[in-house]
Amino acid sequence: MESEKRSAEGGRAGAAGPVSEVGTIGVVGAGTMGAGIAQLACLQGAARTLLHDPIPEALARGLEGIEHQLERGVERQRWSAEEAAAARERLEPAERLEDLAACELVIEAAPESLELKHELYERLSGLVEASCVLATNTSSLPITAIAAAATHPERVVGMHFFNPAPVMRLVEVIAGDASGDEAVAVARATGGSASRASSRSTASAGSAAASAWARSS
Ligand SMILES: NC(=O)c1ccc[n+]([C@@H]2O[C@H](COP(=O)([O-])OP(=O)(O)OC[C@H]3O[C@@H](n4cnc5c(N)ncnc54)[C@H](O)[C@@H]3O)[C@@H](O)[C@H]2O)c1
Fold this sequence. Notes:
Elements lengths: L4 E6 L13 E5 L3 H14 L2 E5 L3 H20 L5 H10 E4 L10 E4 L5 H14 L5 E4 L6 H5 L8 E6 L3 H4 L2 E5 L5 H12 L6 E4 L15
Parallel strand pairs: 2-3, 2-5, 3-4, 5-6, 6-7
Antiparallel strand pairs: 1-8, 1-9, 7-8
The structure holds nicotinamide-adenine-dinucleotide (NAD).
The site of nicotinamide-adenine-dinucleotide has 23 residues, from helix 1 and helix 4.
């Protein structure tokens, strides 16, 4: 049975970066979780955030949802109009998975199917650089099982965001049996580098209480 090491990264941060060492983040799946994660990434995390969904309508819906949230955030004074504009600049649609080739971190929020995720990790393995970390937002599938489809399973790690990602601002970093220290470190740095007052703890799913990519007020 797989033993997974889980830790929560957290703290508070402003809407503007720089909060991550990762320059280009890809998000796969523009649904409930993917759109929320991409919103966090473009507001706070990456120099570029590429959002991919193979279904054009889903991609458009995800982008519209982010745009709506960016506007609402300005209205509610959660971030400035300038910060929203900068986030828009950083966010790019990726119609093809191949568009993610230059990413340093890919966060996968595709449907919860091992078969589907295997196909994705096989394809991603052939697309991205060997140094690219592949993080899955799976709720229930073992990281080790997902990583089995990757050419380099040591680069696969869990980054478990909670729904709604922009509100919950909690990331559990989960290492599978094969996850390398470097992949875990990148996931931690990305989830936790938003922190002004970072707290790091080990926790099992659902018991972690720290927040990451936290809002400014
Ligand atoms: N919804 C939650 O509360 C929640 C919380 C934490 C984690 N998760 C996990 O996040 C992942 C996504 O969940 P969700 O709720 O956002 O699902 P969702 O159904 O809202 O979104 C999934 C998206 O993936 C797209 N998609 C379909 N086939 C794809 C493929 N081959 N490659 C890439 N994208 C594809 C769909 O078009 C859709 O936009 C799952 O692994 C789930 O377990 C969900």
